Amino acid sequence: MMAIVDLRSILDNIQMAADVAIIGGGPAGIAIARELADTRIRVLVIESGGTDYQAETQTLSAVENIGEPRASKSVEPTGRGYAGNLAWLNDVAAFELRDRILGGSSHTWIGKCAAFDEIDFAHRPWLPLSGWPIARYQLLTALDRAGELLNLGPNFYDKRLFGLLHSRPSELGLDEQFLRPFFWQFSHTLDRHGEPTRFNRLACDIAAANVDFLTHATVTQINLDDQGLRPTSLSVESLAGKKATVHANTIVLCGGGIENARLLLASNSVMGAGIGNQHDVVGRYLCDHPRTSLCSFTGHDIDAIAEHFNFYGLTHEGRTHFYLRGLSLSPEMQEREGLTNCAAYPVQIHADHDPWGALKRLAHGSSRAFMQDLFAIGTSPALITSGLYNRLIRKRGLPHRSTELRFDAMAEQRLDPESRVTLSKQRDRLGQPLARVDWKIGSCEIESIKRFAQIMVDEFDRVGLPRPQLADWIEADDGGAAAFMDMAHPSCTTRMGTDPLTSVVDPNAMVHGIDGLFVAGSSVFPTPGHANPTLMLLTLAIRLADHIKRRHEIEQSPKASIRDRQLSTHHT
């Protein structure tokens, strides 16, 4: 079992030491700790929360939000699209859906995963600052390792998946110059059906003597040497007032898209503008995935669409993995009209008398209307039979009795330096400035989503699929009436690049000019893509862990020259 020390239970002002200090016990931090386990590197993971949720600790994630989504009398508010037991997540304030608990945001995710497209890594002349400093092919090995960590199937998310699926999807005849098939898969635990990977459980599986966890410990300052060239230690504090200092030469900041920027900006005792912020870049280019509903289907049209846009299974290494089929805007269309990358996925709203929902409630002991659920099952033998055939033989999604099927979309954002995280004058319980979040949704994203929906209607009409009902604002061509919500996917606030004028970390995720200070998580994405970020941020975290191991081996070698140590800093 892992070794956990609760800061509240030890001596005040204690001095601790590690070779690598990881700030944040969420997916990125735990993935790096796992990769460094059973090495000669002493690792300390510092987590603001504990092993259980505590409302008092969660207050430290409050932000001052001065940007989107804005309240408006003319715009109907929208949630994040969650349903069922997770519907409460729709009501969490923008940019505050961040879990201060060991395991981080994996406690409130549904496991949805996809890899970034080839176009996401490319320089696109119509999108300023697009292009990654690393190519997609360089990440494929780490991508597969991240997929294994999440218990995913093969990392294919486009038409290449068709030939691997147990029952091949129908060729609908959609023009791929406009729309492309896109798939998502869902992370899951091996021993709990339907539950996504929870990283607190992965942390508990770390039994290495070189990895320790410090909980209820919020890092309030990253301390640098007098020249501001290297990190030396971390100032840590609990809500109960206990303090500690953690000494480490290598520090990895894994606090998420908001907290990474906040802590760098607040660590200003040596660098007045904050660490890595000589060019006022830290916190800029804040992106999320603006989510909205594009269109919907009702009545008999639901089944006609669900037959094609649903779950498809394949068997890989003895396990069946299901992929959700949706659509994405083609690269050709993006280039032709100067649009961002977008994708849409089907969401079914099940009727109260859906037999599969009733069966699930009864099986889980959560039924509030026992007789009605029994009636729904007993009067639907055909739907139950066809569902079993679909799932067990065809390896397809279950047929549901639904009241609506809609397509929800998430869009890539065009980078905007005025969309940003800064420090608020308001302070939290530890006296630290809150993050001041000014998220901006630009006309490029709005136009991209609108065109995506219009193309879907035209293409569905052309191939004989039912015609969807467009969202009101798209039908009226009124971008000002568009309703969006953040998806708790903040990114790009410490973006990766080769130019310190427009980026915070280099291609190895080390803060420009600060030897030994690294950043992991979606904040280092150069551009955000449209895909849910967890799979890609884990890919980069695993890549970073490999780099730290190589760097440590070189630095600890008795034969290493000064030049070798310098090269370890710049090794890619």
Automatic annotation (TrEMBL):
One Gene Ontology MF term: oxidoreductase activity, acting on CH-OH group of donors
Domain annotation Glucose-methanol-choline oxidoreductase C-terminal: ranges: 418-541
Chain segments annotated as transmembrane: none
Protein name: Choline dehydrogenase
Signal peptide (from-to): none
InterPro entries for the chain: FAD/NAD-bd_sf (IPR036188), GMC_OxRdtase_N (IPR000172), GMC_OxRtase_C (IPR007867), P2Ox-like (IPR051473)
UniProt keywords, alphabetically: FAD, Flavoprotein, Oxidoreductase
Glucose-methanol-choline oxidoreductase N-terminal domain mapped to chain residues: 207-290
Cofactor dependence: FAD
Family: Belongs to the GMC oxidoreductase family.
